[in-house]
Amino acid sequence: MSSFKAIVIRKGEAGQTVGLADFDESELMEGDVTLRVEWSTVNYKDGLAVTGKAPVVRRFPMIAGIDAAGTVETSNHPDWKPGDRVVVNGWGCGETHLGFYAEKARVKGDWLVPLPAGLEARDAMAIGTAGYTAMLAVLALERHGLTPDRGPAVVTGAAGGVGSVAVAILARLGWTVIASTGRPEEADYLKELGAAEVIARQELAEKVRPLAKERWAAGVDSVGSTTLANVLSMTRYGGAIAACGLAGGMDLPTSVAPFILRGVALLGVDSVMCPQHLRREAWQRLDTDLDRRKLAKMTEEIGLDGVVEAGRRIVEGQVRGRIVVKIG
Ligand SMILES: NC(=O)c1ccc[n+]([C@@H]2O[C@H](COP(=O)([O-])OP(=O)(O)OC[C@H]3O[C@@H](n4cnc5c(N)ncnc54)[C@H](OP(=O)(O)O)[C@@H]3O)[C@@H](O)[C@H]2O)c1
């Protein structure tokens, strides 16, 4: 019986434990494709899973990790054959289905996306769920008909993973980007990624007025709560905000004023159950619209043995940009 190294979360009487362990291949869950995982990444949700800070994990034991890039080893799925290079994220992996902080994974072939021709597996995981979600948010703004000539775009939680990638993509697409961060020391970093202006998180943390001075035409919000409510109240007539996160809280203390008096739209973004055609579009656009030098600037690399510590750091808001995990 062969085994492989994985970050395994177990639940016992004393609560949840997490650590690097040997996992038996016979315990892999059902699926028609077996992958050799080469790279993974640490997202906010991974941090919640490994720290147990929120009930992300719904099955025990669980291999944590919601993202993978790697190679198909065996396949009973008509679309995939051994040697194919693929990306997979979401669909409950790392939550209800065994995830990807592991040398091996078994998944449904329907969940896989081909690794875009211009991306290395490591690049794909430097992007990861956070970056792909940022791209989904930009696609949502575009589908709403917004273009850079309508005014600036705001990005909240800008020094985080979703935020950093959103800043880089929007700047590349010609938007004037206003980056909101709680870490003023990251202002130069955000400007290097393409932000035209950096504002303090606190500016969006004040008591929410139904309508405030119009400041931006579009936005990508990974913070939620009062921040998102303030962002909406400051959105220009006919603008839209793509909401994808809750780093600041799950509530939304807003009023209908921005929607009914300024025609502002709130666009929801979900990466987990996102349909295949949108995933493929997002990965193709990431291939063309994300500057690799900027991606390199925002990425740090760790091994499997660094995942738990990185998970702790990300839920404390201490991670800048993205973390890739080299597997094996
Ligand atoms: N909808 C989806 O499918 C989807 C997909 C991916 C991620 N997400 C969500 O998006 C959010 C960001 O994910 P991520 O991986 O980018 O995490 P991350 O790297 O930790 O980024 C989150 C950023 O939010 C800011 N922040 C943290 N705590 C805050 C607080 N209390 N108040 C205000 N701002 C705060 C920080 O940015 P600054 O230091 O710059 O202020 C932090 O870097 C998470 O909530 C995650 O669950 C959702």
Query: What structural category do the secondary elements indicate?
Result: alpha/beta
What is the number of helical segments per DSSP (H or I, 4+ residues)? 9
Under the CATH scheme, which class of the largest domain?
Alpha Beta
Number of strands: 16
CATH architecture of the largest domain: Alpha-Beta Complex
Q: What proportion of the residues form beta strands (DSSP E)? A: 25-35%
Overall spatial form: globular
Main sheet characteristics: 7 strands, mixed
**CA-to-CA gap between the ends?**
19 Å
Radius of gyration: 20 Å
| Quaternary form | single chain
Query: In the residues, how many domains can be counted?
Result: 2
Domain Enoyl reductase (ER): 15-325
Protein name: Oxidoreductase
Organism: Rhodoplanes tepidamans (Rhodoplanes cryptolactis)
InterPro entries: Acrylyl-CoA_reductase_AcuI, ADH-like_C, ADH-like_N, ER, GroES-like_sf, NAD(P)-bd_dom_sf, Zn-ADH-like_protein
Can you walk me through this structure?
The chain is α/β, with parallel strands linked by helices. It folds into 2 domains: 142 residues, Quinone Oxidoreductase, Chain A, domain 1 (Alpha-Beta Complex), CATH 3.90.180; 140 residues, NAD(P)-binding Rossmann-like Domain (Rossmann fold, 3-Layer(aba) Sandwich), CATH 3.40.50.720. The protein is 29% helix and 29% strand. The strands form 3 sheets. Strands 3, 5, 6, 7, 8, 15 and 16 form a 7-stranded mixed sheet that branches. A 6-stranded parallel sheet has the order 11-10-9-12-13-14, with helices on both faces. A 3-stranded antiparallel sheet has the order 2-1-4. Helix 9 links the parallel strand 15 and strand 16. The longest helix has 23 residues. It is globular, with a radius of gyration of 20 Å. The model has no long low-confidence stretch (mean pLDDT 97). Bound molecules: NADP nicotinamide-adenine-dinucleotide phosphate. NADP nicotinamide-adenine-dinucleotide phosphate (NAP) binds next to helix 1, helix 2 and helix 3. NADP nicotinamide-adenine-dinucleotide phosphate binds next to helix 1, helix 2 and helix 3.
